[in-house]
Each structure stands twice: as structure tokens, then as C-alpha cells.
Specification:
By secondary structure, the chain is mainly α. It has one domain. The chain has 11 helices and no strands. The longest helix has 47 residues. It starts with 10 loop residues before the first helix and ends with a helix. The mean pLDDT is 89. InterPro entries: Ccc1_fam. It is a multi-pass membrane protein.
Length: 249
């Protein structure tokens, strides 16, 4: 029985794949935004429902959280990725300057980097000559090997948009039962139970989704994210309940 592999190793397919290069991955932005959206909205729903306020209050505060906190998270993630991008540009300019001012020192850095990888003798010197023959290739090697810079540059705008969409979509789920309380004649407490189940399903779904990019089985990843998300939601609910008791609401 032959084990299925992820991609073809035919020469033409390899050439095409290497030509396209690695692609930026925004999975962590989706997972981060989705979990936070579900947790924060669920905490608001739980707090308001626990205070025996009306369905309208739940929906208004929940919607405000989706928009305000979602935008805040997206802006924060945009700024974080932008800071990484700016730092990459700074390091790139620095390496260009060092190569111009101290080329032999930079060649020695390349030599030691590849010596640590097992190159030696003529092979090592040839590797150094090939790499340093092109300034762009030289700088790229130094960025990745000396500074640990990623090979793929992530877009701040895309990271921010993905975070906001994930936050909004997953965060809207705890509100859904309260949109139909009048239509199906359920109480706020019943709506809260349904919202809890649906929020748990969102966490499990996020875990199942991210298992496509991990070695974990889908149900293991789903349960892991489910427990992490529900613990976070429980903590948020517990803090709200504690503060409610302190203020005597």
C-alpha cells in the first residue's frame, strides 16, 4: 500500500512550485480573531443575561462589541505586522550598508554560517563565493540566517482584514439565539443555553479547521481548541459574575 503524499515530485511540477515560492499564511490571524470574537461576545451575552436584562440590551451590547472590539483587534494586528515589516526593511538596509562598508567581515559571517551547516574546505569557499556574488542573494541569506527573518512577507492589511472577519463571524454566533427569541418564544435563559452550545461548536470548528495545517487529528485539534475557548469564556463569565456581586447589581 502506497502512502499518499501532499504534492507531485515530477521535475516540471517541482520547478513550478519553487518558482511560485512559499505563500503567506494567515491562519493564526483567523484563529486569534475567531476565538477572541467568540469569547468576548459570549462574555457580554452571559453578563447581560445574568443581570436579567432584555434581549435588546444583549443584542445592542453584543453588536457594539463586534464592531468596536473587532476593529480594535484588526487595527492592533495590522500595526503588529506592519512593525515586523518595518523591522525587516531596517535590517535589509543595515545589511546592504554592512556589505558596502565591511565586505570581508560579512563574507566571514557567511563562511561561519555555512561551516555550522557542515560545509568545509573547497565546498565551503565555493558556497561563500556563490552567495556573495550577488548582493541581493547575499542580503537575503543574511536576513534569514543571521536575523531569522521570515522567507515570506505578510501583508498588514490582509492580516487586519482576516482578523476582523474572523472576529465578526465567530463573535456573532453567541448573539444568534437572541435574534429569534420572539419568533420561537424562548426565554433569555434558554437563549443563553443555546448560545453556550453554539459557542462551544464554534471553538470546536476553529480547531477542526486549523487541523488542516497541523499533524494533529481533526477531532484532537477540535477538542483542544474547544477546551481552551470554553476555559477562556468561563474565566470571562466568572470575572463578570464576581464584579456583579461586588457592585451589588
Amino acid at each position: 500500500m502506497h502512502e499518499e503524499i501532499e504534492h507531485s515530485h515530477a521535475p516540471d511540477d517541482i520547478a513550478k512550485r519553487l518558482e511560485d515560492g512559499p505563500q503567506a499564511n494567515y491562519l493564526r490571524d483567523w484563529v486569534f480573531g475567531g476565538i477572541d470574537g467568540a469569547v468576548t461576545t459570549f462574555a457580554i451575552v452571559a453578563g447581560v443575561a445574568g443581570a436579567s436584562l432584555s434581549t435588546n440590551v444583549i443584542l445592542i451590547l453584543g453588536a457594539a462589541n463586534l464592531l468596536a472590539d473587532g476593529f480594535s483587534m484588526a487595527a492592533g494586528n495590522y500595526s503588529g505586522v506592519k512593525a515586523e515589516q518595518d523591522d525587516y526593511k531596517r535590517l535589509r538596509e543595515m545589511e546592504h550598508r554592512h556589505i558596502a562598508l565591511a565586505p570581508e567581515g560579512e563574507r566571514e559571517e557567511v563562511r561561519q554560517i555555512f561551516a555550522a551547516k557542515g560545509f568545509e574546505g573547497e565546498d565551503l569557499e565555493r558556497a561563500v563565493d556563490i552567495i556573495t556574488a550577488s548582493h541581493e542573494r547575499w542580503v537575503k541569506v543574511m536576513l534569514e540566517e543571521e536575523h531569522g527573518a521570515p522567507k515570506v512577507e505578510r501583508s498588514p492589511k490582509t492580516a487586519g482584514v482576516v482578523t476582523f472577519i474572523a472576529f465578526f463571524v465567530c463573535g456573532a454566533v453567541p448573539l444568534l439565539p437572541f435574534l429569534f427569541t420572539d419568533m420561537v418564544a424562548i426565554s433569555v435563559n434558554q437563549g443563553m443555553i443555546i448560545a453556550t452550545i453554539m459557542t462551544g461548536a464554534v471553538f470546536f470548528g476553529i480547531g477542526t479547521f486549523k487541523s488542516q495545517w497541523s499533524t494533529a487529528r481533526w477531532w484532537v485539534s477540535g477538542l483542544e481548541t474547544f477546551f481552551i475557548g470554553m476555559i477562556a469564556a468561563g474565566v470571562a463569565y466568572g470575572v463578570g459574575a464576581l464584579l456583579k456581586s461586588w457592585v451589588g447589581a
